[in-house]
Structures are given as C-alpha cells and as structure tokens.
Amino acid sequence: MPSADFLLEIGCEEIPVAYIEPALAQLAEGLAAYFAAQRLAHEPVQRFATARRLALLVKTIRERDKHCP
C-alpha cells in the first residue's frame, strides 16, 4: 500500500517557553484524531519547536483502503 510523510510547520511570533509544549501537545492530539477519523494508519507524531516555529512530522501515512467508505 502506498505511503507518504506529512510535515506541518507553523511560523509565528515568539512564543513564551511555558506555552510551547502544551501547544505542541494540543496540535499533535488534534492531528492524530483527524488521521484516526479518516482511518489513516501512521507512525507516531513527532514534535519539534523553537520560539518562532511549531512543527509536527508524521512518517509513513498509509492510504485508506479504497473499499472502505
């Protein structure tokens, strides 16, 4: 089954250090929930951040079975 990688990167104004981890966690949970709702199998969501960037990387997203609605 074909697969692909997905990178989401958000550039923003400087984020206070205390807000980075909760923001990454919320983004990762939301993305994982979306993939689950779409029935897309994937490896764990990797999280990366700097004071001006939040990023999520998901490797090996497998295409949904065409026979499933």
In this structure, how is the largest beta sheet organized?
3 strands, antiparallel
Uncertain runs are none
Mean pLDDT: 90
- Beta-strand portion reads 35-45%
Report the order of strands and helices: EHEE
**Class per helix and strand makeup:** alpha+beta
- Indicate the radius of gyration in whole angstroms: 14 Å
Q: Widest sheet: strand order?
A: 1-3-2
State the helical fraction. Answer: 25-40%
Q: How many distinct helices?
A: 1
The overall strand count is 3
Distance between the termini: 17 Å
Outline the structure in words:
The protein has 69 residues and is an alpha+beta fold. Helix content is 30%, strand content 36%. The protein is built from 1 helix and 3 strands. The chain has one helix at 17-37; strands at 3-11, 45-50, 53-62. A 3-stranded antiparallel sheet has the order 1-3-2, covered by helices on one side. β2 and β3 form a beta hairpin. The chain is elongated and about 45 Å long. 6% of the residues are buried.
What would you say about this model in short?
The protein is built from 1 helix and 3 strands; from the N terminus they run E-H-E-E. By secondary structure, it is α+β, with helices and mostly antiparallel strands.
Topology:
Elements: E1 3-11, H1 17-37, E2 45-50, E3 53-62
